[in-house]
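Re-run requested by the PI after the first attempt was lost when the workstation crashed. Everything re-entered from the original request form. Ligand of interest: pyridoxal-5'-phosphate.
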Amino acid sequence: MTKRNILLTPGPTPVPPEVLKVMAEPIFHHRTPRYRALFQEVSEDLKIVFRTARNVYTFTGSGTVAMEAGVVNFLSPQEKVVVLEVGKFGERWSKLAKAYQLNAIVLKTPYGETVTPEEVEKTLKLHPDAKAVYGTLCETSTGVLLDIEAIAKIVSKTKAIFVVDAISGLAADRLEMDQWGVDVVVSGSQKGLMIPPGLAFLAANGKAIALHQNAKLPRFYVDLAQYEKSLRDWDTPFTPALTLVLALQVALARIKAEGMEKVWSRTAELARKTRKMVHELGLELFAKRPANTLTAVKVPAGVDGEKLVSVMRDEKGVTMAGGQGEMKGKIFRISHMGFISETDVRTGIEALKETLTELQKAQSAKV
Ligand SMILES: *Cc1c(COP(=O)(O)O)cnc(C)c1O
């Protein structure tokens, strides 16, 4: 018997069988009409998911490559940026700003909370020379959803561009790049897009491209100018991760067939059901403003959170994610992205219930 292995982590997420299958196709060369046709199709289809008429650039690398591209392509040394830091992935924007010697004004909240549009507005009034605001659609470390629409409305009235990390969140929680006026959106392949890790994406609008033309930070591999030039021929400047692009074609066809509205409403429904099941177990949600992308749950008092996650994975065949950084052992996280079904979540919650009972029994036996 093969051991059960249900993947409920917020990245990587499960990959549909038809996507796995296409990755067994023989390799072909990428400087060919066949590749150009493939890359044209996926580059056009990505716009449907990003909700933009602008180009979406594809990089080989994990999501962070696109985050780095979202910094070096738009700024010059010492320039001022505002970072919305509500968790571990917001902290990554701050680290990138530091690595590139930018002057970062950090709006930091405790884990589980979020910044308000009013706070962003106040900060931008105090710092009218800020060139960019960096935020996150879904802060995967805490399960918090930021109010990107309201924040975009504020940032769009200033000279700054709004750069949003939608590495998780894309194709899970609603994000309307063009309609909301988000200037740059970055994402990765291993979350809502339902393919393995290894591709990263960036879409930029006219306001962002204008900044790009004067941005002096050093860059080479992720320089948008090269990607833009290649994309005119439906090509990439460097060897693409061909097998993953094939996978992307199949995954995007799946998303297109379902439609973005349905993708969002299905994910919202699964998140709603999960929260209900969590409440029925007497557990508490962690996020003050929960995303539909994933649900973060507080580990109940007296239970070892890290043990809970490892027992579920190794003995019950259900992988949930534990807490990261300062949340280690304090929360666990259940994903609702992409190919995760209600049955997967129900099975996961059953295993959670069993494991909690076992751990609590062992604990009371000790006392
Ligand atoms: C998963 C994730 C990332 C990390 O991307 P890598 O693919 O590990 O480089 C960044 N930001 C958010 C919000 C994420 O969920």
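Saved to the shared folder this time. The domain at 17-257 is CATH 3.40.640.10 (Aspartate Aminotransferase; domain 2).
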